[in-house]
Task: structure prediction
Amino acid sequence: MNSNYIKKINLIVNEKQYNLEVDIRETLLEVLRERLHFTGVKRGCSVGECGACTVLVDGEPIDSCIYLAVWANNKRITTVEGLEKKGQLSSVQKAYIEEGAIQCGFCTPGLVLTTTSLVNSGKKYTDEEIKREISGHLCRCTGYQKIFNATKRALEKK
Ligand code: FES
Ligand code: FES
Result:
């Protein structure tokens, strides 16, 4: 590897620090999945279109397939693995289960994280706003009504 392309970074993933040397061309998706083994982060389209690779960076949902790992230096990253606390699923995860909003589950981690960011914002959302906020996520199993219901349920629980 050309050393001109290597940079040391510090990632805080699910409240744990990781000091890494990364290639400046590596995406956050590659680092999270292939080096740190957070396989809840899914690779779908790889071009920022499907939302499967969504993680929270300082609380904001981003497509990790088009976000360089070096941009996340010293930032707090949340993957779906970080939502469970002391063996308890988060209220958003429970809402997805309660609404049966999971089929194959490939889109679910990204959607759960986007929904978590909406819940954490503390704002109120109309039905149209909820649809707009989750519209960046493609569900190949097409369970959109249940996903909408789960997102709404999670927002009503807070
Ligand atoms: S894999 Fe990143 S948006 Fe599809
Ligand atoms: S549940 Fe299968 S892609 Fe959404």
In short: The chain has five helices and five strands. The first helix runs from residue 28 to 35.
